[in-house]
Structure formats: C-alpha cells, structure tokens
Structure to design on (431 residues):
C-alpha cells in the first residue's frame, strides 16, 4: 500500500496535469472559433467556383477535346493520395482517423493492382503513414511554421500536384481530410481532385445566354487549376477547424478523467489518514490501559 | 434601372464586399469594362487590376484584384478573385518584385512560347503599376 506521502504526491501531479489539459481545452476552444470563422468565410468562394465550373463543365461532358484536368488521362493506373492531417497531436483520434481512411483506400487500390503514390500535407500524417508506406510517400509538405493558414499555402500544394500531373506522374488524385460537422463530430472524407468531379448544376438559370470573354474553353482552362487550389484550401481550413474541435473534446475528456482520478485518490488518501489516526489512538489507549 | 446592381467581391479567404452599387469597373481579360444595372450575362477571367466601385451614394472606391473571374448574371455581379484587397493595402514594391522575378524567369526560359507568355505577364504587371500611379482603372 502506498504511503500517505506517495498518495499526496500523486494527487498533486494529477492536479497539475488537469490544469494543463484544462488550459489546452480553453485554448483549443478559442482557436476553434477562429478556425470555424475562417472555414465559413471560405465557403462562398468555393461554392460559386463549383457552380460556375459545373455549368461550364457540363457542356464538355463526354467530349474528346475536354481539358485534361476535367477528362483525366483516360487511365486509372496510378493513384495519388493527398493526405492532409494536423501538425500536432493531442487531438484524440483526429490524425489517426484520416490516416486510417487513407491507408484503407491505399490497401484496396494496391489489392486491385494499382500503383499508389502518397503526398502528405502535415507532419502527423507523414509520421503515421511512413510506418506502412514509407516507399510510397513521394513528398511531404509541412505547415508547422505557418501561424495563420492562407490561400498561398494551399496554392503551394496545388501547384505541386499540378506539376506532377503535367509530368504524367499519376492519373487520379484524391484528397483526404476531415470535414468539420460539429465539435464532437469530424468526418474523415475522401474527395477526388483530378479528374475534376462536379455536382450537376442546380438550376437551368445557369444556362442563360452567357457571353464569354475570352471564350468558354479558355475560362475553363484558367479555372480548373485554380479550382484545385481552392478545394485544397477549403480542405485545409475544414481540417483546421476539425483539429481544434477534436482537440477540444479530447482535452475536455482528459480534464474530466483527471477530476475522477483526483476524487478516487483523495478518497483513498482520507481513508488511510483515518486508519492511521485510529491505529495511533488504539496504541495510546492500550498503552494507558496496560499501566 | 436606377436601383443599380448587386456586387459581391469574394476572395478565398473572405467575402470582401457585398452591397448594391451604381456601377462597377472591372479589369476583364479583354480590357476594363463597366457594369451598370441589368447588364447582359457575361463571364470573363480577370487581369490583375483595379475594380472601381461607385456605391449608391455616388462615392467611388477602388479595390485591387488579381486572378480569378467575374460573373455578371441577372442577379448581379460576382467577382471571384484569388487576391482581393482595398487599394490602401496595395503594395507597389510587391509588384515590382514580381516583375523582377518575371524578367529573371524570361532569361532562363527555353522556348520562344514560354518567353512570349512571360513577356505578357510582365506587361500585365507593368500596366498594373501604370494604373496604380494614375490612381484607378478608370483611366482606361
């Protein structure tokens, strides 16, 4: 049985852990709010971009002369998995759930005899995936030094992917990230980047007699590469919000667990103290009686 | 059409402006054009340049935009720009840096096509600086 002093030390250490997790939870909550605002601010752009591309792209469906980013290379032999995760841990299952989805997809593709290449964005995903797929990771991009994610960061990733595509290094690109549903629910998501996929235009209003400057094809060719960066940017922001959400609930749990532990340890401590006092009393009384 | 047109300037990071305005001058791919109310549907890519907005009170304001497109629909005008900021935040030296980088790249360019493309890009930036010294894109 641990001595009273040991117990006291245990309690003190759990208490300081609780203070840390509590502080981390509050920091995550504050950052989550900002990350969520950023994710929401990015939504109009991505949505409009999607609408316009869907309208333009629909005209090219099934045509031979469609731009390569829309039509693909006509093969699906080499797959590029772009795995976006966080830079830090201590966020519950956030990083590992994205990595798991990517790993399962990769294993399925390998099972089908496809070639898989992996591009990791974020240090944690790289750490997890390199255990299994060390030889398949072609590159890794880290935003560890970046304080506030900007569009520049996303276009850096986008340009990298486009350069690889132009060099014919892959046929299909899929982006893995975590979609932010709420503080307690983040959904690991796989989204196909190349060839581009759009939802059908919502209304026929889009097919008005538009005048195009310079022309439809040029606009589409200008927009498709931008769209890649926009999608990545949105994914990064969603990821960021998800990360803080996951961290917040993980730290909330940790704080609660520490509280339970303190309660249990205090109970044991008090019992032992009581037992010791009783023991001392018995000793004194039986000593007095013996006289 | 005295009620003017609805304008939204959106960058990937935020919604910069959303209001009903009298007129908007936009740096389109084939040159600056001005949109008033009830404009015919038009879609164009953007050149780097300045968007001049005349708001409902008749006061004009200038924004710098780069890359993206403008979508004129019956509901109004949407400018989706990769970079969009108030003219007060416009930084001349940044553009000068881009010109210098472009010139270096041109020296290194292998094909004539590539050189042409870069030359066009550099010209775009130079025009932009000219516009900036005049104050707005309205000079066109």
């Amino acid at each position: 049985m641990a001595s009273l002093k040991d117990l006291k030390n245990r309690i003190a250490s759990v208490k300081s852990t609780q203070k840390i997790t509590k502080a981390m939870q509050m920091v995550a909550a504050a950052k989550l709010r900002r990350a969520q605002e950023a994710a929401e601010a990015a939504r109009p752009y991505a949505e409009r971009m999607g609408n316009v591309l869907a309208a333009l792209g629909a005209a090219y469906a099934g045509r031979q002369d469609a731009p390569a980013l829309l039509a693909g290379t006509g093969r699906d032999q080499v797959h590029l998995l772009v795995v976006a995760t966080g830079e830090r841990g201590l966020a519950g299952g956030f990083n590992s759930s994205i990595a798991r989805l990517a790993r399962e997809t990769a294993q399925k593709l390998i099972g089908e005899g496809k070639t898989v290449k992996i591009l990791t964005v974020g240090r944690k995903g790289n750490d997890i995936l390199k255990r299994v797929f060390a030889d398949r990771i072609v590159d890794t991009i880290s935003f560890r030094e970046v304080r506030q994610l900007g569009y520049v960061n996303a276009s850096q990733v986008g340009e990298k992917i486009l350069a690889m595509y132009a060099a014919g290094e892959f046929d299909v690109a899929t982006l893995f990230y975590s979609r932010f549903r709420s503080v307690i629910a983040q959904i690991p998501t796989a989204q196909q980047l190349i060839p581009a996929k759009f939802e059908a235009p919502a209304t026929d209003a889009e097919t008005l007699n538009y005048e195009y400057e310079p022309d439809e094809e040029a606009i589409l060719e200008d927009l498709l590469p931008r769209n890649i960066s926009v999608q990545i940017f949105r994914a990064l922001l969603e990821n960021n919000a998800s990360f803080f959400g996951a961290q917040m609930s993980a730290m909330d749990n940790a704080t609660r667990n520490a509280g339970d532990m303190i309660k249990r340890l205090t109970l044991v401590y008090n019992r032992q103290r009581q037992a010791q006092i009783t023991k001392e009393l018995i000793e004194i009384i039986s000593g007095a009686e013996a006289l | 059409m005295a009620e003017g047109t609805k304008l939204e300037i959106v960058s990937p990071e935020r919604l910069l402006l959303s209001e009903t305005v009298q007129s908007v001058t936009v740096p389109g791919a084939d040159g600056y054009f001005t949109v008033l109310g009830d404009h015919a549907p038009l879609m164009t890519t953007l050149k780097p340049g300045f968007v001049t907005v005349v708001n409902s009170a008749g006061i004009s304001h200038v924004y710098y935009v780069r890359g993206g497109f403008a979508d004129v629909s019956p509901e109004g005008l949407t400018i989706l720009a990769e970079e969009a900021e108030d003219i007060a935040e416009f930084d001349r030296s940044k553009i000068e840096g881009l010109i210098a980088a472009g010139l270096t790249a041109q020296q290194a360019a292998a094909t004539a096509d590539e050189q042409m493309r870069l030359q066009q890009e550099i010209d775009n930036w130079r025009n932009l600086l000219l516009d900036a010294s005049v104050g707005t894109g309205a000079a066109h």
Notes: Chain A is about 60% helix and 15% strand. Strands of chain A lie at 78-84, 115-121, 137-141, 172-180, 186-194, 211-213. Chain A touches chain B through 28 residues (CB under 8 Å).
